[in-house]
Amino acid sequence: xxxxxxxxxxxxxxxxxxxxxxxxxxxxxxxxxxxxxxxxxxxxxxxxxxxxxxxxxxxxxxxxxxxxxxxxxxxxxxxxxxxxxxxxxxxxxxxxxxxxxxxxxxxxxxxxxxxxxxxxxxxxxxxxxxxxxxxxxxxxxxxxxxxxxxxxxxxxxxxxxxxxxxxxxxxxxxxxxxxxxxxxxxxxxxxxxxxxxxxxxxxxxxxxxxxxxxxxxxxxxxxxxxxxxxxxxxxxxxxxxxxxxxxxxxxxxxxxxxxxxxxxxxxxxxxxxxxxxxxxxxxxxxxxxxxxxxxxxxxxxxxxxxxxxxxxxxxxxxxxxxxxxxxxxxxxxxxxxxxxxxxxxxxxxxxxxxxxxxxxxxxxxxxxxxxxxxxxxxxxxxxxxxxxxxxxxxxxxxxxxxxxxxxxxxxxxxxxxxxxxxxxxxxxxxxxxxxxxxxxxxxxxxxxxxxxxxxxxxxxxxxxxxxx
Length: 468
Known about the structure:
The protein is of the alpha+beta class. It has helices at residues 16-65, 149-159, 268-293, 309-322, 355-364, 366-373, 382-394, 399-460; strands at residues 74-78, 84-88, 96-104, 110-112, 127-133, 136-142, 163-169, 174-180, 189-195, 219-222, 227-231, 234-238, 242-247, 250-254, 258-266, 295-296, 301-302, 342-344, 351-353. Keywords: Bacterial flagellum, Cell projection, Cilium, Coiled coil, Flagellum, Secreted. InterPro entries: FliD, FliD_C, FliD_N.
């Protein structure tokens, strides 16, 4: 706001305070209107953001229920966890009970060389060391740069031959120790050499590391073994102690010899919790919609988004999905959510969940329950269709994005109008200053003329006579 110190100097009538007041009176109505529009627009953007967050939160449990294995949740137990541990994959597992008799654990083979006086000075010969593990042979060159005990160990480790090498100080000398990286008889080691001394089987040079089934110049300290166990009387052999692909969806981790009873049972509570999450998030969305778009009959006031077409579309679309009968379930005893204990309160629009009814139906017909929620050959279940609906609203070109983008454009328009207001007020202020200055000059001229006339009249007035 301009401040011209000469305003009112002649008359004392047109002051800066008066100028500022007139400018503020001119600005105030438009500025108040723009402030109201901006506050309302910002509030609507925030309200749509809350609706978006609630809808995204609802989408997560809907996605879980839309999966083909959504109703297939299983838990497992072992009567003797020190012998057998167990885990399940609910997508392929089924209920069952298994007696597991572990007769032998799998173990990896270990070999040890003869003792040497030192680990990094004595030359052990040169040539090619060939390691065969699991049918794969790896050739390792040994020469003057690595022909010590430690050098051979390092060369084996660098070769990634399926064997780990180390040097052990026994107190009476140093021994090269080799261990197969994988357990089981299929991963037994075979070691042959091409010794530069011309003899590939004696105890000199590289030949002292031969272990090929015929010549055993290294000592087998641990024999390779397979895991052997009986599952319900059927013998199973595996190279590892993690037993997979014997019972669908079940993994046995054998830890010791002995017997344990393993049970796989349906985890009803886990399935119920998935559905409860869906109900809770759906009801939370209804609460959010009521907060921003509801109508209070007592105060006769509506929420900020009351009557908004986007909010109505979200409510209408989701409610329609709740009452649909998915394709293929027209003649099924389970056709809609109400059949499994999920009903809608007409007063609030919220869902009510009777878990006891749900558990009963889940036990009677898990396949129909899955088809009710998930994608199937006949078409999409309720959860799958609700996910698709949510994605339409939440997408970059969805209704929520379009509404928020439109409100953002409205904010930019308000900002543009503020610039226009500043320009108009500046021009108005300039005109006032010009008008005040002209009026002040006119008043000053009138005052000057008045003073001159008074002086002339005073000069013409009779002068009092002197008595002398």
